[in-house]
Automatic annotation (TrEMBL):
Lineage, top ranks: Eukaryota, Metazoa, Chordata, Craniata, Vertebrata
Key word Transport present: no
GO annotation (BP), single: intracellular signal transduction
One Gene Ontology cellular component: I band
Family matches, as InterPro entries: Tuftelin_GRINL1A/MYZAP/CCD68
Coiled coil: 4-90
Annotated protein name in UniProt: TUFT1 protein
Gene from which the chain derives: Tuft1
Keyword line: Coiled coil
């Protein structure tokens, strides 16, 4: 009887320890799942960050290319304006010569 009582007491202690260990195991699994989720979020954030960095680099390159094209077009426009002004000056000079010749013809 004493041995049975002792075994029952030991069995009850083992059951209590079993429940305690199960609870700790579930808490550990929950913490592990949370940590995996956090690390997964960090990896997702790192991937997104890397993707955004690539996009930014690509956009910077496009902007640089567009700036170069814009500068080139501005140079062309300035050259055209200069040519136009030079042409106007030449036309005015020729108009003055024509006017002078008209006056001479009218005088004659």
């Amino acid at each position: 009887e004493v041995q049975v009582d002792e075994l029952q007491r030991l069995l009850a202690g083992m059951e209590k320890e079993h429940r305690s260990l199960l609870l700790k195991m579930k808490e550990g699994e929950a913490e592990l799942a949370r940590l995996r989720s956090v690390e997964g979020d960090k990896l997702a954030e790192q991937d997104r960050s890397a993707q955004l960095e690539k996009e930014v680099a690509m956009l910077r390159e496009k902007i640089h290319h567009l700036d170069d094209m814009l500068k080139s077009q501005q140079r062309k426009v300035r050259q055209m304006i200069e040519q136009l002004q030079n042409s106007k000056t030449v036309i005015q000079a020729k108009d003055a010569v024509i006017q002078e010749l008209k006056e001479r013809v009218a005088y004659l």
